[in-house]
Amino acid sequence: MKRAKLIVKLVVFAAVAAVLLVLGCGEKLTQSKAISLGWMDIGRILLVIFATLAAEHLILLILSFFTPKSHRVRTGFSLISNVIRYAAVIVILIGVLTLLKVDMPTILAGLGIVALVVGFAAESLITDVVTGFFILMDNQYNVGDIIEVGGFRGTVSEIGIRTTSLVDMGGNVKIINNSEMKNILNRSDISSKAVADFYIPYETDLAALEAQIPALLQEIYDAHTDVFKEVPQYLGVQELAASAVTLRFIAEVGESDIYSGARLLNHDLFLGFRKLGVECPFQQVDVHNK
């Protein structure tokens, strides 16, 4: 979907730029003359804008065809894409000012003063950029990693100059300023445990059931080797509840499979115990009359 949008935008921008070239807007782009805003001058400005946008989207489209497996390389691609977008804006700005015959040397000379003013006015912006630089250098997290920050858990979809984008299991996107990326828990660096609690009736012969559990867990593992990293484990009796005995099971999975792994474990335990003649209990109330 993202690549399709890039192709559509590239075609539109390139087509508009081509039409402007055919109309002669590409002639005398560098000719010096007084500032004017005739139709031809407006056409030249539009040509610079659409040609730059077309070049930007062409580069982004080429990058989209690369799908590196390394999270570090994907982070580099994300940063390059971000820089290209900022560079396109700067090129358009300089190109338009040049066509309008603005005195660029004077503007460049005054950038020092402007930078000082902007520095005080955009302190948070500078902090975001500097923090983003150190995040990349320290390799704290990369595109594709699953992290937790500020109570939000998601997969890093993009690392930009100013912000980091996270996507949770529901597809919700959270954009966080780099300066606010603190106390990060990178869960991609460690294996996770999918936990399943299964309830059996008190009438069940627990010793006989426990003797059959290893074979059942091996069967579950063999059916889902793409999710479980090893055979799920039976930890024992977790709780003596009001109407059932709670048995706890865990399975080592990747962080991205922590929820799907728990669902698979619950599903297969239910079917497996049913084959063994063990049904899930229902809540019971005993009433005694005197």
Descriptive report:
The structure is a single chain. The chain is α+β, with helices and mostly antiparallel strands and 290 residues long. A hairpin with a 5-residue loop joins β3 and β4. α2 runs antiparallel to α3. It is elongated.
Which key features would you list for this structure?
three-stranded antiparallel beta sheet, single chain, elongated, Alpha-Beta Plaits, alpha+beta, 290 residues, five-stranded antiparallel beta sheet
Report low-confidence residues grouped into runs of 5 or more. Answer: none
Total of domains: 3
Order of helices and strands: HHHHHHEEEEEEHEEH
- What is the straight-line distance between the termini? 72 Å
Oligomer: single chain
| Anisotropy-based shape | elongated
The radius of gyration computed from the alpha-carbon positions, rounded to a whole number of angstroms, is: 30 Å
Strand content: 15-25%
What is the total tally of β strands?
Answer: 8
Biggest beta-sheet profile: 5 strands, antiparallel
Structural class, by secondary structure, is alpha+beta
Strand order of the largest sheet: 4-3-2-1-5
Give the gist of this structure:
This protein has helices at residues 2-22, 39-64, 71-99, 104-109, 111-121, 123-138, 206-223, 258-275, and strands at residues 146-149, 152-159, 163-167, 173-177, 185-186, 192-200, 233-240, 245-253. With 290 residues, it is α+β, with helices and mostly antiparallel strands.
